[in-house]
Amino acid sequence: VVQLILVCPIGERKLHAILDSLLANADYEYVQGRLSVLATISTLVAKIPEEILSMHSELLLLFFLTKLASDADQACRTLCAHSTLVLLQRVSDTHLNKLFAIIATAITGGNGAIVGAALQILRISLPEIDLAAQIYVELRSEIIKKIVSLSDCDCRAVEVDWPLLCNALLIFEQGLEQGIDGTLNPVEAFNLSRVFITLLHHPHIWIKTTICRLLNLCVIHKDTKNRSEAQYIVNSFPSERIHDTLVAIVHVLWQLHT
Fold first, then answer.
1. CB 26 within 8 A of CB 41
2. Residue 48 C-alpha from the chain's centroid
3. Is residue 220 classed exposed, middle or buried when 0-12, 13-18 and 19+ CB atoms within 10 A define those classes?
4. Taking the model in full, what pTM does it have?
5. How confident is the model over 50-106, as pLDDT tens digits?
6. Cα dihedral sign for 29, 30, 33, 35?
Protein backbone atom coordinates (compact mmCIF):
# COMPACT_ATOMS: atom_id res chain seq x y z
CA VAL A 1 0.00 0.00 0.00
CA VAL A 2 2.78 2.42 0.93
CA GLN A 3 4.68 1.76 -2.30
CA LEU A 4 1.49 2.19 -4.32
CA ILE A 5 0.78 5.58 -2.78
CA LEU A 6 4.38 6.77 -3.13
CA VAL A 7 4.94 5.62 -6.72
CA CYS A 8 1.56 5.79 -8.44
CA PRO A 9 -0.39 9.02 -8.96
CA ILE A 10 -3.43 8.70 -6.71
CA GLY A 11 -6.20 11.24 -6.55
CA GLU A 12 -7.24 12.89 -3.31
CA ARG A 13 -10.48 10.91 -3.09
CA LYS A 14 -8.68 7.59 -3.60
CA LEU A 15 -6.03 8.41 -0.98
CA HIS A 16 -8.71 9.39 1.49
CA ALA A 17 -10.49 6.08 0.86
CA ILE A 18 -7.25 4.14 1.45
CA LEU A 19 -6.64 5.98 4.72
CA ASP A 20 -10.22 5.38 5.86
CA SER A 21 -9.79 1.67 5.18
CA LEU A 22 -6.49 1.49 7.07
CA LEU A 23 -7.82 3.39 10.07
CA ALA A 24 -10.89 1.17 10.26
CA ASN A 25 -8.74 -1.99 10.18
CA ALA A 26 -6.64 -0.72 13.07
CA ASP A 27 -9.37 -2.09 15.36
CA TYR A 28 -8.54 -5.66 14.32
CA GLU A 29 -9.24 -8.17 17.08
CA TYR A 30 -5.72 -9.60 17.31
CA VAL A 31 -2.68 -7.59 18.38
CA GLN A 32 -0.46 -8.65 15.48
CA GLY A 33 -3.11 -7.56 13.02
CA ARG A 34 -3.42 -4.15 14.68
CA LEU A 35 0.36 -3.76 14.80
CA SER A 36 0.61 -4.54 11.10
CA VAL A 37 -1.94 -1.87 10.20
CA LEU A 38 -0.39 0.67 12.57
CA ALA A 39 3.05 0.00 11.10
CA THR A 40 1.68 0.73 7.63
CA ILE A 41 0.07 3.97 8.81
CA SER A 42 3.29 4.92 10.61
CA THR A 43 5.31 4.38 7.43
CA LEU A 44 2.87 6.55 5.48
CA VAL A 45 3.19 9.32 8.06
CA ALA A 46 6.98 9.18 7.74
CA LYS A 47 7.22 8.96 3.94
CA ILE A 48 4.36 10.62 2.08
CA PRO A 49 5.03 14.21 0.93
CA GLU A 50 4.59 16.78 3.66
CA GLU A 51 1.92 18.76 1.82
CA ILE A 52 -0.21 15.63 1.43
CA LEU A 53 0.41 14.62 5.04
CA SER A 54 -0.65 18.07 6.24
CA MET A 55 -3.96 17.75 4.42
CA HIS A 56 -4.80 14.61 6.41
CA SER A 57 -3.02 15.56 9.63
CA GLU A 58 -6.10 16.35 11.74
CA LEU A 59 -7.73 13.02 10.88
CA LEU A 60 -4.50 11.18 11.71
CA LEU A 61 -3.99 13.02 15.00
CA LEU A 62 -7.51 12.21 16.17
CA PHE A 63 -6.98 8.59 15.17
CA PHE A 64 -3.68 8.31 17.08
CA LEU A 65 -5.13 10.00 20.16
CA THR A 66 -8.09 7.62 20.18
CA LYS A 67 -5.90 4.54 19.73
CA LEU A 68 -3.43 5.70 22.36
CA ALA A 69 -6.34 6.13 24.76
CA SER A 70 -8.11 2.86 23.99
CA ASP A 71 -5.71 0.16 22.81
CA ALA A 72 -4.85 -2.35 25.53
CA ASP A 73 -1.52 -3.39 23.97
CA GLN A 74 1.62 -1.49 24.99
CA ALA A 75 3.35 -2.02 21.63
CA CYS A 76 0.37 -0.55 19.78
CA ARG A 77 0.26 2.47 22.08
CA THR A 78 4.02 3.03 21.73
CA LEU A 79 3.76 2.97 17.94
CA CYS A 80 0.86 5.44 18.04
CA ALA A 81 2.82 7.82 20.28
CA HIS A 82 5.90 7.63 18.03
CA SER A 83 3.81 8.14 14.87
CA THR A 84 2.10 11.17 16.40
CA LEU A 85 5.45 12.79 17.16
CA VAL A 86 6.61 12.18 13.57
CA LEU A 87 3.34 13.67 12.32
CA LEU A 88 3.83 16.80 14.41
CA GLN A 89 7.43 17.17 13.23
CA ARG A 90 6.57 16.90 9.53
CA VAL A 91 3.49 19.08 9.02
CA SER A 92 3.55 22.75 8.04
CA ASP A 93 3.53 25.44 10.71
CA THR A 94 -0.09 26.32 9.95
CA HIS A 95 -1.23 22.75 10.42
CA LEU A 96 1.03 22.33 13.46
CA ASN A 97 -0.85 25.14 15.21
CA LYS A 98 -4.14 23.42 14.42
CA LEU A 99 -2.88 20.07 15.73
CA PHE A 100 -1.68 21.55 19.02
CA ALA A 101 -5.03 23.33 19.36
CA ILE A 102 -6.67 19.89 19.14
CA ILE A 103 -4.25 18.51 21.75
CA ALA A 104 -4.96 21.46 24.07
CA THR A 105 -8.71 20.97 23.68
CA ALA A 106 -8.33 17.27 24.47
CA ILE A 107 -6.34 18.03 27.63
CA THR A 108 -9.05 20.36 28.93
CA GLY A 109 -11.82 17.90 28.05
CA GLY A 110 -13.72 15.50 30.27
CA ASN A 111 -12.73 12.12 28.80
CA GLY A 112 -10.02 10.84 31.15
CA ALA A 113 -8.49 8.40 28.68
CA ILE A 114 -8.27 11.02 25.92
CA VAL A 115 -6.88 13.59 28.38
CA GLY A 116 -4.17 11.12 29.40
CA ALA A 117 -3.29 10.37 25.77
CA ALA A 118 -3.08 14.09 24.93
CA LEU A 119 -0.85 14.73 27.96
CA GLN A 120 1.44 11.92 26.84
CA ILE A 121 1.70 13.39 23.32
CA LEU A 122 2.41 16.86 24.68
CA ARG A 123 5.07 15.44 27.04
CA ILE A 124 7.03 13.61 24.33
CA SER A 125 6.79 16.73 22.15
CA LEU A 126 8.34 19.06 24.74
CA PRO A 127 12.01 18.25 23.97
CA GLU A 128 11.39 18.14 20.21
CA ILE A 129 8.97 20.93 19.21
CA ASP A 130 9.18 24.55 20.42
CA LEU A 131 5.43 25.11 20.17
CA ALA A 132 4.83 22.28 22.65
CA ALA A 133 6.55 24.28 25.41
CA GLN A 134 4.29 27.26 24.71
CA ILE A 135 1.18 25.08 24.90
CA TYR A 136 2.45 23.50 28.12
CA VAL A 137 2.90 26.92 29.76
CA GLU A 138 -0.66 27.86 28.78
CA LEU A 139 -2.04 24.61 30.21
CA ARG A 140 0.14 24.21 33.29
CA SER A 141 -2.47 25.58 35.70
CA GLU A 142 -5.03 23.15 34.27
CA ILE A 143 -2.55 20.28 34.65
CA ILE A 144 -1.88 21.24 38.28
CA LYS A 145 -5.63 21.32 38.95
CA LYS A 146 -5.92 17.79 37.56
CA ILE A 147 -3.10 16.57 39.81
CA VAL A 148 -4.75 18.10 42.88
CA SER A 149 -8.23 16.82 42.04
CA LEU A 150 -7.00 13.30 41.26
CA SER A 151 -5.09 13.19 44.54
CA ASP A 152 -8.42 13.61 46.33
CA CYS A 153 -10.08 10.64 44.62
CA ASP A 154 -11.56 7.90 46.79
CA CYS A 155 -10.22 4.35 46.76
CA ARG A 156 -12.68 3.16 44.12
CA ALA A 157 -11.42 5.77 41.66
CA VAL A 158 -7.75 4.95 42.18
CA GLU A 159 -7.62 1.99 39.79
CA VAL A 160 -9.46 3.91 37.08
CA ASP A 161 -7.71 7.27 37.38
CA TRP A 162 -4.09 6.40 38.14
CA PRO A 163 -2.96 6.42 34.44
CA LEU A 164 -4.31 9.96 34.04
CA LEU A 165 -2.67 11.05 37.28
CA CYS A 166 0.60 9.47 36.19
CA ASN A 167 0.56 11.28 32.83
CA ALA A 168 -0.19 14.60 34.55
CA LEU A 169 2.68 14.10 37.00
CA LEU A 170 5.09 13.04 34.25
CA ILE A 171 4.48 16.11 32.10
CA PHE A 172 4.80 18.36 35.14
CA GLU A 173 8.12 16.67 35.91
CA GLN A 174 9.25 17.11 32.29
CA GLY A 175 8.41 20.79 32.44
CA LEU A 176 10.45 21.27 35.61
CA GLU A 177 13.42 19.34 34.24
CA GLN A 178 13.47 21.43 31.06
CA GLY A 179 13.10 24.66 33.02
CA ILE A 180 9.90 25.60 31.20
CA ASP A 181 8.41 28.42 33.26
CA GLY A 182 9.72 26.54 36.26
CA THR A 183 8.93 29.03 39.03
CA LEU A 184 5.65 28.45 40.87
CA ASN A 185 3.96 31.10 42.94
CA PRO A 186 4.42 30.46 46.70
CA VAL A 187 0.88 29.23 47.42
CA GLU A 188 0.86 26.96 44.36
CA ALA A 189 4.27 25.52 45.23
CA PHE A 190 3.40 24.80 48.85
CA ASN A 191 0.00 23.27 48.03
CA LEU A 192 1.65 21.03 45.44
CA SER A 193 4.26 19.87 47.94
CA ARG A 194 1.47 18.80 50.31
CA VAL A 195 -0.27 16.95 47.49
CA PHE A 196 3.01 15.19 46.60
CA ILE A 197 3.49 14.07 50.21
CA THR A 198 -0.06 12.70 50.26
CA LEU A 199 0.56 10.83 47.00
CA LEU A 200 3.55 9.02 48.52
CA HIS A 201 0.87 6.76 50.05
CA HIS A 202 -0.68 6.02 46.64
CA PRO A 203 -1.02 2.24 46.06
CA HIS A 204 0.53 2.31 42.57
CA ILE A 205 4.32 2.10 42.46
CA TRP A 206 4.60 4.27 39.32
CA ILE A 207 2.87 7.14 41.13
CA LYS A 208 5.13 6.75 44.18
CA THR A 209 8.26 6.66 42.03
CA THR A 210 7.27 9.75 40.07
CA ILE A 211 6.39 11.61 43.27
CA CYS A 212 9.81 10.80 44.77
CA ARG A 213 11.47 12.30 41.68
CA LEU A 214 9.24 15.39 41.87
CA LEU A 215 10.02 15.94 45.55
CA ASN A 216 13.68 15.65 44.66
CA LEU A 217 13.23 18.33 41.99
CA CYS A 218 11.40 20.62 44.40
CA VAL A 219 14.20 20.36 46.97
CA ILE A 220 17.36 20.36 44.83
CA HIS A 221 16.37 21.44 41.32
CA LYS A 222 17.34 24.95 40.22
CA ASP A 223 15.37 27.08 37.77
CA THR A 224 17.96 28.86 35.63
CA LYS A 225 15.87 29.87 32.64
CA ASN A 226 15.81 33.64 32.04
CA ARG A 227 17.49 34.30 35.40
CA SER A 228 20.83 35.88 36.25
CA GLU A 229 21.02 33.72 39.39
CA ALA A 230 19.66 30.19 39.83
CA GLN A 231 16.82 29.79 42.33
CA TYR A 232 15.86 26.60 44.13
CA ILE A 233 12.22 25.72 43.53
CA VAL A 234 11.78 25.06 47.23
CA ASN A 235 12.48 28.76 47.79
CA SER A 236 9.03 29.42 46.32
CA PHE A 237 7.51 27.92 49.47
CA PRO A 238 6.38 30.33 52.20
CA SER A 239 9.40 30.70 54.50
CA GLU A 240 7.54 29.59 57.62
CA ARG A 241 6.45 26.39 55.85
CA ILE A 242 9.76 25.18 54.39
CA HIS A 243 10.86 23.51 57.63
CA ASP A 244 7.50 21.79 58.14
CA THR A 245 7.46 20.59 54.53
CA LEU A 246 10.96 19.12 54.65
CA VAL A 247 10.29 17.40 57.99
CA ALA A 248 7.12 15.86 56.56
CA ILE A 249 8.98 14.65 53.46
CA VAL A 250 11.73 13.02 55.52
CA HIS A 251 9.17 11.43 57.86
CA VAL A 252 7.15 9.88 55.03
CA LEU A 253 10.24 8.68 53.14
CA TRP A 254 11.53 7.05 56.33
CA GLN A 255 8.20 5.24 56.71
CA LEU A 256 8.48 3.98 53.13
CA HIS A 257 12.06 2.85 53.75
CA THR A 258 11.18 0.91 56.90
1. yes
2. 26
3. exposed
4. 0.82
5. 888 898 999 999 999 999 999 999 999 999 999 999 999 999 999 999 999 999 999
6. positive
